Amino acid sequence: MFQLGLPTDIVEIQSINVSPDPPEPGKSLTITAIGTAKETIEDGAYADVTVKLGLVKLLSKRFDICEEAEKANAEIQCPVEQGYHKVVQTVDLPKEIPRAKFVVDVRAYSVDDEDLLCAKIKVDFMKKPF
Prior knowledge:
It contains one helix and eight strands. By secondary structure, it is mainly β.
C-alpha cells in the first residue's frame, strides 16, 4: 500500500509497483516507479528515510539521491531532466528480514530544500506468497 506525495511536489509520482507482491526475504525485489519531474533534479538532492516496525523506529537516515543512484547503477542518473520518467530497479532483500509489517516513510528535497517528493510505503513480510 502506498500513499504518494502532493501535487505541489517537484516530482509527481503516478505509481509505484513491486514484484513479487508480497516481497520475500532473501529474494530479489523489482520496484517500478512512474512519475513526472516538474523541474530538473540536480546533485545535492536528498531523501530522509525512516523505517518503522509498529511504533519502533528501526532506521532513520539521510541519503544523497544522486550518489545513491550512481552507486546502485540506476537507469536514471543526475541531473534528472524535467519530464516523464519510468524507473525500474531491482534490489536483493536480505533473508534475515523478519516476518513483520514495516512502514517506510520517504521525504525528499531538492538541493534548494524544496519539497521533491514524499511517499509512505507499507510493506508486509507476513503474507505468504502463493
